[in-house]
Amino acid sequence: MNLPTRSATYASVIGAVLSEERERKVFTQAAVAKIAGLTQSTWGRMELGRACTIENLGKAAHALNIELWELMKVVDDRVKGLESQGIQVVYELPSEEEIKSHPEAWVTGSTLKTLSIIGLGAASGLAVAGVASYISSILKKQ
Prior knowledge:
434 Repressor (Amino-terminal Domain); 142 residues; 64% helix; two-stranded parallel sheet; mainly alpha
């Protein structure tokens, strides 16, 4: 019996990392969005894996006091961790119809945050205490 492949979008991994970092720094969506010069609605869509333009990501990284490359390094490592757990990461956003027709096949939200942290921990042997701490630990190893 073949089980369906579970998938996550690259943008939803970005959203999970943004959400985690915002929560770790004890910001509300409205507060961090204001610092970033975005609306709360736009920030919320980013955390859901939508509205993740390079401009918005640059503003988000600045508001969270991290470098954009650091954010993307964590996202890429999370993707590797998810893939090591058998979760396929896709780079195109699925249509609403695709998601609704097979909701069990898509990993999103808090489940994605948990799975990506587990995968990252397995891949690196590190507990994640935030983007900057994680990047610092990687740089010290080199």
